[in-house]
Design goal:
two-stranded parallel sheet; seven-stranded parallel beta sheet
Length: about 300
């Protein structure tokens, strides 16, 4: 059994990862400042601490006998990062530096970091591997890449894995946040407004990964004791156009009108992942089909609306 610190434990992904670790019998300590999450998301049976990790003094409140640090806390919207780059830097990079320091001082076995596909920027229409030179387009992407590089700088002192997460979706996602989560935004609009507003071309493409598959990847990265360092794409490895997503939503909800608007700053036109490295190193294989996943997500949303 491990004692595991999960930051961002009140968020969509953090709460799901913490719940899975708890169910596997590990002791989980959760931290969140509730700026992007909800107290109701926090799994039962874990120790919860509420504070901002960007304030280094707050880290003195953490228990010191931690085996693993899973850093999922942060500001998660590229659009919002342009509105307040300083806050984005504090939430995503200063917090990481503070946790690096904490991990080194307390001899943590490994720090696993929630990075993002946003680090890549504009890319060719091909599966993108981890060795592609990263050229982020948003303040959010810059901060994520910066944190990755800090982890590499300190890799002789602390083992670390950066998880470059692609478009995560599924039950538990926040339907009220209209600036983060392409699928959740479209489905929320379809259910509440009876129409979908798309910011940018419907020919844009993404790599969507279901929350269950994302949690599986985090569990494997955390508990695999042979893989101590690395950067991994965490995705389905499949290219899906925005038009395909709209088609699946309309297949389920029937004829929801679509309005095309101007795109948002720093938005990638298209990206999908080469996941051969995470398959090889962590034996990770996503299982959820996109149509099955979206139908399941809509069913969950309808129960809660």
């Amino acid at each position: 059994m491990k004692r595991i610190l999960v930051t961002g434990v009140a968020g969509f992904i953090g709460s799901a990862v913490a719940r899975s670790l708890r169910n596997l019998g590990h002791e989980v300590v959760g931290v969140d400042d509730i700026s992007n999450g909800y107290l109701s998301n926090i799994p039962d049976g874990i120790q919860f601490l509420e504070f901002d990790l960007a304030n280094k003094e707050n880290l003195k409140k953490l228990p010191t006998n931690i085996d693993l640090v899973l850093h999922l806390a942060g500001q998660s919207s590229g659009e919002i990062s342009f509105e307040n780059p300083i806050v984005d830097l504090e939430k995503n990079t200063v917090s990481t530096l503070n946790l690096i320091d904490f991990s080194i001082i307390n001899s943590v076995e490994k720090l696993i970091y929630a990075s993002s596909m946003s680090v890549y920027g504009e890319v060719p229409d091909m599966p993108i591997s981890e060795d592609l030179i990263a050229r982020p387009l948003s303040c959010y992407g810059v901060g994520k890449l910066c944190s990755e590089n800090y982890l590499k700088v300190f890799q002789e002192n602390i083992n670390s894995i950066s998880m470059r997460m692609f478009n995560v979706y599924g039950p538990g996602q926040d339907l009220t946040n209209m600036k983060q989560g392409m699928l959740s935004i479209y489905i929320s609009q379809a259910l509440k407004n009876k129409k979908i507003q798309v910011k940018g071309s419907i020919d844009r493409f993404r790599d969507f990964i279901h929350i269950d598959d994302m949690v599986d990847a985090w569990i494997k990265a955390s508990l695999n004791e042979e893989v101590k360092n690395g950067v991994f794409n965490v995705a389905s490895g499949k290219k899906t156009k925005v038009s395909d997503i709209l088609g699946i939503i309309n297949k389920k909800l029937i004829n929801v009108p679509v309005e095309i608007l101007e795109g948002t700053p720093g938005d990638q036109y298209g990206i999908y992942a080469d996941i051969s490295l995470i398959k090889k190193k962590l034996n990770f294989l996503p299982t959820k089909d996109i149509e099955e996943g979206i139908f399941e997500f809509i069913d969950w949303c309808q129960v809660g609306t």
